[in-house]
Design brief:
alpha+beta; 48% helix; 186 residues; Beta Polymerase, domain 2; 5-stranded mixed β-sheet; 6 helices; single chain
């Protein structure tokens, strides 16, 4: 059983992202993509699980398919959208890959999708609000203690605070409700 570990911000997370970004840019040469470091490891000062979240932003489903094909050729496994429209999850398989770097979650995500908007708004809010970083860090630390082996409860426990941040950034009510529903423990 995997233990949820939340640790202080580490500047190496940005270095690891830059290494991954260079790899993806080379791999996806000729495709219309944008590589974004999202999630908690993308915010200086924020406590996080030491797992990068990376979005490969694409303009349409045709480019998405091309990106997924190239990622599968280097050892990623396509996991589908996992219930989140506009986003395709890719799992890194160490045994099938010729490269090695920090643990990460990788998504191929449509430009303009609600999922991308969620990631970008949350990152922007946290980068621009030191008090939000402190509050979010504390919630994550507390939840990791209370739910050390229950990722679903950990994610759901963060949901209300994340919703408040997204609401302050101007996300619409229907989108907020969908995001909160998607984060409910199964």
């Amino acid at each position: 059983m995997r233990v949820i570990k939340v640790v202080p911000y580490n500047p190496m997370w940005q270095t690891e992202f830059e290494k991954a970004k260079k790899f993806y840019i080379k791999l996806l040469d000729g495709l219309d993509v944008q590589i974004e470091h999202v999630g908690s490891t993308s915010v200086k000062g924020l406590h996080a699980k030491p797992i990068l979240d990376i979005d490969i932003v694409v303009p349409n489903s045709e480019v998405s398919r091309g990106v997924i094909d190239r990622l599968e050729k280097v050892g990623y496994i396509h996991q589908g959208n996992m219930g989140i429209p506009g986003r395709e999850a890719m799992k890194y398989d160490k045994d099938k890959s010729s490269f090695e770097w920090m643990e990460h979650h990788l998504y191929v995500i449509l430009s303009g999708s609600e999922s991308l908007e969620n990631h970008m708004m949350l990152r922007r809010h946290l980068r621009n609000n030191p008090e939000a970083v402190k509050a979010y860090s504390q919630v994550k630390l507390d939840l990791a203690k209370v739910h050390p082996n229950d990722i679903d409860s950990y994610v759901e426990g963060k949901s209300e605070l994340i919703r408040s941040f997204l609401e302050k950034e101007g996300m619409n009510l229907k989108a907020l409700n969908r995001i909160q529903d998607a984060n409910k423990a199964k």
